[in-house]
Specification:
Layout lengths: L1 H19 L10 H5 L7 H15 L9 H19 L1 H10 L16 H4 L4 H29 L7 H10 L6 H9 L16 H19 L12 H14 L7 H28 L3 H16 L19 H8 L4 H5 L3 H7 L5 H13 L3 E9 L11 E10 L26 H17 L20 E7 L5 E8 L5 E9 L6 E10 L7 E8 L24 H25 L1
Antiparallel strand pairs: 1-2, 2-5, 3-4, 3-6, 6-7
Length: 571
């Protein structure tokens, strides 16, 4: 860092010097200026000016103190007179700017004297050797080493190799978390296990086991497959985050926040990418659940109510048992009095904060789902099917409906399934509108996550029978009030009725996911209406027209050729 700052300081200093240094322009030799006459004067005027200056600057006409200057001036005066009176010298001057003809020019770079003086050359060479022989190769080598260690998503190559080798289609959420903690990122210098952490980690394990046994009915234990110390430390810090166990050690608490943020990146850009590449619906869904757990600091299958301020592991079971209250949406459907009664364990300040946050947690609705082949009234085998999904935030503070700029947009909810023309126009205009209607999503409420997190969503469409994703999940990153998503996929080759799962999951909140079953019937192409016949409206030309005469002439020529061919065949 010090070398970088010194380098920038040197650049600024050189820039300042360049800006403030006065540039001396080279003065061109001008015989007219020396003689004190204008360009293009006649020879008489040139001779007269020459004689006048010769009398003034002749060495015999000046004092002793001016004899040296007079000699120089007379040399210039004589050269200027010769240039303007000699035809060859004048031609050379006009062409090349020199009476002697074209001259060679050399250019160089001005260096500080310190760099070229003999007594400083050993130090200069030592500096060059230090910069170009040690410092520059060191930093270039370190940059190259780091660039080859990471993939394009800035994940270590050994991490992706571990993920590829161990992830499976049918894998439990617990095993996915263990695989996540086996990432090489958690073995780096700032996060790796140190013997000094042993005592604090043991105390933390006891707290996590106690909480997990009481409230999660799942005893926390060490990973069975990955047994390294770095994996064990990352696992402890993640589960302390899931169970909201306070870490007293300040340095360990900072490392926990870094582990959580790193784990979220590894889920989104690593594990989820591998799972969706294989079209694994169940595995991808579990990874999306882990994303929610990391952002909110909750364990799997927790009550969504625990995301509200004031709701803890201790009072949430009591609220559920006594008031049968489980989710935020259930709370928001109550009246004000019912809400206060249900959250009677909270004081007034805690109650107000909980209700305020509950109002901001988005409640998603699927407004319209349409499966169609653009331009056709039915879905046939191997055709390109377009899936149109409209989603909305039911409790959005501002009902902003993006309509595009200068485009008359029809709402997909108002278009019937049979109106193929309107559907085709909607899909054609969708790409233009999508570029013009990008909006900034609201920030998610996540007090246990270090840093800002925007509320985003995943849309998945999976085949019910095979359990495979039909298309990779779509990340909806700009959902503010409502949004339309358009996807395309190829219909199966068999005629049958297929069932699909349409799932939209939050990447930040638990309990906000929506799912809908969608059916698609593939029919034989013969059921489609036949294409209309193309009517040829071109009439025959009239007999006396030029077109008719040309057509008749072409027919006669064709007949003649056929006759010749037949004759040749007979021959």
């Amino acid at each position: 860092l010090g070398l970088i700052l010194a380098g920038w300081a040197l650049i600024f200093l050189l820039s300042y010097k360049v800006k403030t240094t006065e540039v001396m322009e080279a003065k061109m030799w001008d015989p007219y200026e020396i003689l004190g006459i204008d360009n293009g004067e006649k020879e008489e005027t040139i001779t007269r000016a020459y004689r006048k200056l010769s009398l003034k600057w002749h060495p015999d006409k000046v004092g002793k103190d001016l004899k040296e200057k007079a000699g120089e001036m007379m040399a210039e005066i004589n050269r200027a007179h010769k240039t303007l009176t000699n035809a060859e010298a004048r031609e050379n001057y006009e062409k090349y700017g020199n009476p002697d003809g074209m001259q060679t020019q050399s250019m160089g770079i001005a260096l500080p004297k310190l760099l070229v003086e003999a007594h400083t050359s050993p130090f200069v060479l030592a500096l060059y050797g230090l910069v170009f022989g040690f410092i520059m190769p060191f930093y270039v080598g370190r940059w190259w080493y780091n660039s080859t260690r990471y993939q394009k998503d800035h994940i270590l190559n050994p991490t992706m190799s571990t993920f590829f080798k161990n992830i499976r289609e049918h894998i439990s959420q617990r095993n996915l978390i263990e695989l996540l903690t086996a990432a090489s990122e958690f073995a780096e210098d700032d996060l790796k296990y140190r013997p000094a952490d042993e005592a604090a980690l043991k105390a933390l394990v006891e707290k996590i086991r106690r909480v997990s046994q009481i409230y999660a009915n799942d005893m926390f234990s060490a990973p069975k497959k990955f047994t390294g110390k770095d994996v064990w430390k990352a696992n402890i810090l993640l589960h302390a985050h899931f169970f909201r166990v306070k870490i007293d050690d300040g340095e360990l608490a900072d490392q926990q926040q870094q582990v959580v943020m790193t784990a979220l990146t590894l889920v989104h850009r690593g594990l989820l990418q591998i799972s969706t590449t294989h079209n694994w619906y169940t595995c991808s869904t579990l990874l999306m659940n882990i994303s929610q757990m990391l952002v909110q600091g909750v364990y799997c299958y927790d009550a969504p109510l625990i995301q509200l301020p004031g709701i803890t592991w201790e009072n949430q079971p009591k609220i559920f048992k006594e008031k049968n209250l489980y989710s935020n949406h259930q709370l928001m459907r109550m009246t004000g009095g019912e809400q206060r009664k249900a959250l009677s364990l909270l004081n007034d300040k805690q109650f107000d904060e909980a209700i305020q946050v509950a109002k901001t947690i988005p409640r998603l609705e699927i407004a319209r789902v349409l499966l169609t082949v653009v331009g056709d009234k039915a879905i046939t085998p191997a055709s390109i099917v377009t899936l149109i999904v409209k989603v909305r935030i039911a409790n959005a503070p501002n009902k902003i409906v993006p309509r595009g700029k200068g485009v008359a947009v029809a709402d997909i909810e108002d278009i019937s399934d049979e109106d193929t023309a309107a559907i085709e126009n909607f899909v054609a205009d969708f790409g233009k509108r999508e570029k013009e209607t990008k909006q900034t999503p609201p920030e998610a409420y996540c007090p246990y996550f270090a840093g800002r997190k925007d509320s985003q969503w995943w849309l998945s469409f999976a085949n019910y029978q095979s359990g495979k994703l039909v298309v990779p999940p779509v990340r909806i990153s700009d959902l503010v009030s409502e949004r339309v998503v358009v996807l395309q996929f190829q219909a199966p080759p068999q005629k049958e009725t297929y069932r699909f799962h349409l799932s939209i999951k939050s990447d930040s909140y638990i309990g906000n996911d929506v799912m809908q079953e969608v059916q698609m019937t593939v029919v034989d192409r013969s059921t489609l209406p036949s294409e209309p016949a193309i009517v040829d409206d071109i009439s025959e030309p009239e007999e006396d027209s030029i077109a008719a005469q040309m057509a008749q002439l072409r027919g006669q020529q064709a007949g003649a050729r056929r006759g010749d061919d037949e004759s040749s065949d007979e021959d």
